[in-house]
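Open question from group meeting: does this chain pack into something compact, or does most of it stay loose? Before anyone orders reagents, we agreed to write out a predicted structure and look at it together. Recording both the input and the output here so the notebook holds the full record.
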Amino acid sequence: MYGKITNFLEGKKGKAVSGYLEIKKDQVWGRVYTVHPGNAECYYLRLLLHKIRGPTSFTALKIVAGVVQPSFQAACRALGLLEDDTHWNSTLEEASISESPHKICELFAIILVFCQVGDPIKLWEKHRDSLAEDVKKQFEAEQVNIDLYLDIVYNQCLILLEDIVISMSDKALLQFGFLSPSREAGFAISNHHYGKELAYDTVHLSKIMAENVPKLNQEQKEIYDKILNSITSNSGDGKIKEVEGRINILESLSNIVGDLITLTKRIYPNIHQVGVDSSPWLKERAILTPTNDSANNINNFLLNKLTTKH
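Structure tokens returned:
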């Protein structure tokens, strides 16, 4: 083993080593070079060299029970050479009770950089919700379905964590046997409008369609069926094509107007004279928009014109 290298020397004293004419074996003073734990993979390599007899390659050092481990750290973990992370787990659990997500990220970075974490990925998976709470709130503020964006949320949190780790150690997360975030995926957290438009609850919308399509009048139903059939069925007339997720409505199915005032006058004529109790009249009319923001603008515009009867 590596730790016994200092027992061998060139010279005339000592016992002969079979197969090595110039090498003798004897009790001598010496030491194996130390490695700082911060130099993670070298540190774990040194542990393996002290444990495994007769390795023939670096890959051989990673083989545990016939399985090639992904790193020297993983090999040490599989051999039971590392302590568990109970202490660090308790530390993060206690911090999550009172500290902000940013402070918890800083604490996680300190543990990762300066302490010996046995399984950093497992520790991350257990506490990532506490670390990513601020990022989640950014999405929730945009009223999106957070379950659809968990991968992006966790990736953004990893980016923030890696920035802290780099500021402390000038090393990326990957050098600590940790996950490496995708920097390109970070655009999604800043593009709120894009996120909102992908966050529709399709199950809920399908239920709304099932309830309201039967309420369409004959003219509305004909237009609805023609558009839907042209988009979803090969038996359609093929005149309405989808290009990069968008469709162009045929001019024959619509009247083009140049501004919001004209549009609302066509769909909701004399709305300022209609009370909110005229729900049948309102339900017969609708304006479709490509984005949620456009819908909000139109709603606010119409609500300002709609008078309430007392």
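Observations to bring back to the group:
The CA atoms of residues 230 and 238 lie 6 Å apart.
Residues 150-169 form the longest helix (20 residues).
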